Amino acid sequence: MYALDNQSGVDVMPPLKAQLKQPSNPLWFTEGGNGVAPSYPGADWFNVVQAELLNVLKAAQVTPSKDTLTQLASAVQKIAETAIAQSTKVDKGGDTMTGVLKAKDVLLTSDDGAVKSLSNVIQALSHLFTGNVQGFTDKMNALGTSGTTPLGITYNRDNPNAWYLCLGPLFGGFIIQGGSVIMLSTNISITPPLHFNQNSVLYCDAVDISADLTVADRDTTMQMTYGLNVLKIITKVNLESIKWLLILK
Which superkingdom is the protein from (predicted)? Predict the structure, then answer.
């Protein structure tokens, strides 16, 4: 794309003549004939077209070159790409993207009909990536509830002798319970903090953590069983301290 490039031109664009026709009723070129003179564009028309084309290149920051015949196409493409990029650009936190669907606008419907915002999921992931465990669990729990069962994560570690971790339906519904107990007899029952039934047990175990174990204890046997909401540990001798673990589904 290039402007007029010979000695017939002038350095300053001449003033345009008065407009004769309205844009809604334009005139068109003709070769003439049958008493009608052929059309001629005149300097005004060429100056207007040249100015328009040069301004397209200027808007795209393209320097006119007489040897390049694709500058106009490149300029239009660059202008379009810039406009699209600007319309979706966010410079910093808190900026608003007009006309763009936001996370809070996307609603998720659970099986029980509860409607929740996707923004909780986004915020939960943000807490997870930054190591904010409490913030992550709070946001996961805010996703909604099904009856009284949180969809996220709940736990209680206040009592080291009886703690639990519930991963909730969103993470498969696994429940891990554990704790410590002192063997006051060779047959004890343990009631975990969360109720369960026999069919929900995936794994249970117990281990002696007494500090005074001796070689004589090597033949000691310990059996563990469970019933509804209860674990039972039976041993031949008093093993004093026991740690137990229970995994449920």
Answer: Bacteria
